[in-house]
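Recall the central idea of this unit: under ordinary conditions, the amino acid sequence of a chain determines the structure it adopts. In this exercise we apply that idea directly, starting from the sequence alone.
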Amino acid sequence: MLSHLLDLFPAHTHPLTLVSDVDGLLADENTLAALIARGFTLIQEADPILLRCRAEQARPFTSQNPLIIITADALETLPYDLWQQGHRLSLDLPSYFPNLAYPLLRSLTPLQRARLDESPAPSARLGRQGSIDYLLKQVFGLTHETLQSPAEFIAWLEALHQQGLAPLPEALLAWLLEQLQSTPAYMDWPLGEMLHSRQAFTDFIQNQWEAYIRRKVGELAGDYTPIMPVLIPFQSDAVLQDALPRLVRGGSLVPLQVMQPERLPEWAAPAIRSSKEDPRPKRVDDLQAALYASLTILPPDSRWEAWGPIARAWAELSSAWYSPGFQPIPAQQVMQKRLQAEMDPAFLAWLSRRYAPLGAQRLPTPHHLHHVPYFLAYLRSQGTVEKVVLLILDGLSLADWMLIAPAWRERHASWRFDESLLLAQIPTITSISRLALASGLRPSELAAPGAPGDEAQGWLAFWGREGLPGNAIATVSLSLDRSEPPSEISNHRLQALCLIDRTIDNLMHGSVLGAADLQASVRLWLESGSCQSHNSTRLETLIDGMLERGFTIFVTSDHGHCEARGMGQPSEGLTAQTRGKRARLYNDRRAAQRVQTSFPETILWEEDGLLPDSLTVLMPEGRQAFTSFNETVVTHGGCTLDEVIVPLVKIQKSDEV
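Accordingly, the structure predicted from this sequence is:
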């Protein structure tokens, strides 16, 4: 099956290989990683001018420096000189999965196809319904028994979202909804939303648990409001009762404060707490245990989807760890250091193998920041969205988003959130990562990586190539604490708007007391009762106004941040092009090596397939910084999970309020 694809690409054989890949067979992360490990440079570029530029940059093509050019069209559409000299291949799904319905195969994501590749092949040709049944069972692990049990269905949904397998293809989703909606146990469940969005799933579970507890004990501690009738049979389903600890550990259910916990059955204990109990120590214990278990079993060649739950759990742990008044006990402090000591090198080792392959395939799922403009254009071409706003919250980390998202959800019931994760550009500095995000260009394609960039020009050029007129495109830097939004936001011709807000980055660089200081500042910024010009209210008002005008908002960040400790500052004169606390850039590799001799606890990052070949980045290992010895700073530029993995959040107006 797909594993045999690599047989078509022997190492050191063909200097130039041209591939017509209409079904995206080469989009799988493992396949891309294997091709790059064999020495291939990969180019997939629909724009003929960018294709030509990248091909010229990759010359000379040799058996030791081979190039693969991938197109979704016929090979004859490629430039003639390349077509003439290339080894030509055409790939299609029916060749590898001949017994399954082709339209269904095409609708699978690369991850879903990888799961299919690991499954036993059907012994005979299946029609559309047979293919649906086969795919639901083999790829998504859904059986008839699962559908009959609400407890098992909830467990299946949680796994679906945790493993990154959602959403289901439309045909499978339609059939599944038909089966579920005819089952009395699921009457009035928001099934479509739960199958599509992890947030919708967790919101439903949380609201149902609150409805059940309220019915049992009356009022709850804290500010809770009536939600809905009890639709999930917590009281009568022993399997569901046994699943409560797992739902809490996985973050799908947050324990509720109860004034009289003794009035509830013993099985409810994992998902409740007394009104006087601080939930953070127990949650920190659970998150630390879950993270340690995940890191212990994580294979070196793990897929990108395996790091998503780790990143979210670590972000939640960081939010709790640095929250006001939290005092970890010694055992928790020891475990926190142990987790950092194991996670940071494991993530760096994973990046060294998978960062470049993930950068090679930008659709249908974006992985790198420079994929985002293409993703937005793809959604427009599919009719999923019409007018788009890319809101760049400079410096926003996933842990910061863990604080912002609940506040925005509470204040804006009409907003629907769809969250995913992205990799920032390495080094995670604004001058490289934000320009790549706005322009859709790899750092190697930028005019001067590391120099202050022009996001407005990059955004304009990208959407111009997509066919939008100049008066439909705008980039605006917001200063909502000092002035009103610029007038160009009101342009009725706008189709693609890039908004840049530096509030979080400014708070980060002003946090002289470490990560706890930054979190306190973010919490203060979120308080709606504080001075309106200095909190997030004006930004939320702007978002709401754009939503009312029919825009879809995409919130992301150019990089995250981490708390680091000073290891001293290099003194190398003018040899470094950029001197950051977590990254220093050099056009002369020997200069970087000389500094590394004096600072051995550093790493050299280069030739990753995205940076220019002439650029070398020197970064401190772990969570150290090029600053005064033992000084604590909150900064960015390096390769920790906190700096590299950032949120991508789609915000739309909900049909139901």
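Residues 552 and 639 are 31 Å apart (CA to CA).
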